[in-house]
Amino acid sequence: MNFALAAAWDALGLPASSLRRAVFTGDDALPSPFRVTALASGSVAAAALAISELIGTVKGSAPQVVVDRRLASLWFGWSIRPIGWERPALWDAVAGDYATRDGWVRLHTNAPHHRAAAVGVLACADEREAVAAAVSRWDADDLEAAVVEAGGCAATMRPIAAWERHRQGIAVAAEPLVDVATRPCPSTAWRPGHARPLDGLRVLDLTRVLAGPVATRFLAGYGAEVLRIDPPDWDEPGVIPEVTLGKRCARLDLEDAADRAVFERLLSRADVLVHGYRPGALDGLGYGEAARRSIASDLIEVSLDAYGWTGPWQGRRGFDSLVQMSCGIADAGMAWTRADRPTPLPVQGLDHATGYLIAAAVIAGVRGRLVDATASTARLSLARTARLLVDAGLANGTAPWSSVGENDLSPVVEATDWGPAKRLSPPVAIDGTPMSWNVGASRLGSAAARWRPPH
Questions:
Q1: C-alpha distances in angstroms, 455 versus 201, 256, 272, 322, 434?
Q2: Mean of the pLDDT values across residues 96-112?
């Protein structure tokens, strides 16, 4: 049994008998000391099997799910292949791993205010060589703490054993993989479709970068109407062509009265809210839990953060690459490859796996609303997904692995806002229910902040 699928299914409280409908094909495995291909295929399977369960509520029988291990692994990288244009750079010029006096630290500086915080602490020129020289004069833990205190994002590289002794590591280990709570809710008029099981399901997406957008991209692939909302000045150019497939993207300023009224109208008609705000952030905007419930009593809500929902770091800013440094993955990779610097997973596996687990939690919540008249709230974190991967143990070698070829790509040419592109073929097949997207990737702010009329 795949460890990630079994853990997700148990956390979601779905029937264990359904697991026999998940079939895995292929034997490729990404080169890593960890079972990252099993994490990829298992988390994809969890989301797809949840779709199968939802279909079963309508048809009376749930279809088989077939996951391609190779394609699932590839989707954990970059699914888009531009035709005649180039995907924007993923990292800014300062982001990366730096040697300190006593180890290594990673600075995440893609957002301008995070870069300014790091450079401000280091009191150096805003360029890579100057940053490296300044970092070399610090101890890693001291620099990590100073950058975080200044509002930036940094992580010391720790061994697995050190993280397991760390107060935050201990707190995360005690958290469930998916923390689910339910409450009674009114009946809903929405019902699953057959060929497009999520057709008409309205998903309000307030997530950034990878994990949340991966989740909502999956939901869009089975028919959900996903409306992504970003602040007026936010951008993440390196990942937007990858993650906005199938969505419409609008902007709202939640500190502006007119935009707040628009947001509240959207929320009142949403079925699902997915967000990545740190604990207390929505409360600070006037949209705490009680306010959200008063606007949308039957709302299914799934949220994520980086370092967990308990412990001293529960509100810490973080990203996949930082969590890999903190929890020992980059250190174990360095030892496995005999490298002289931090060696993370070959893909941003914590982001992607958490994304598919978020999608599974959404779909399980939708099913629960139909079957039990309950609305659910679920919470996940990158650090808890990292714990799942580390606890699964080391891989026993790797199967052959080759780079992406034409056989891995869908023949469909996608019309994106940047130009034509191809995507990888879907990583999963559900009998009678193909994964496909109605619209290509689009730029942030390219759509109006409104739901489509019912059809």
A1: 12, 31, 19, 44, 21
A2: 97
**Structure pTM?**
0.97
The CA angle 409-413-418, to the nearest 5 degrees, is 110
Cβ(152)–Cβ(114) under 8 Å? yes
Q: What residue type is assigned to position 254 of the chain?
A: L
Inter-CA distances, 8 with 15, 195, 359, 380, 411, Å = 11, 25, 11, 11, 32
Distance separating the N- and C-terminal Cα atoms of the chain: 41
The arithmetic mean of pLDDT across residues 230-252, rounded, is: 96
The single residue listed with the structure tokens 């893609």 is 110
The pLDDT of residue 263 is above 80: yes
CA dist 54 and 63 (Å) reads 10
pLDDT range class, residue 217, cuts 50, 70, 90: very high
**Closest CA relative to residue 77, chosen from 32, 139, 15:** 32
At 400, is the pLDDT very low, low, confident or very high (cuts 50, 70, 90)?
A: low
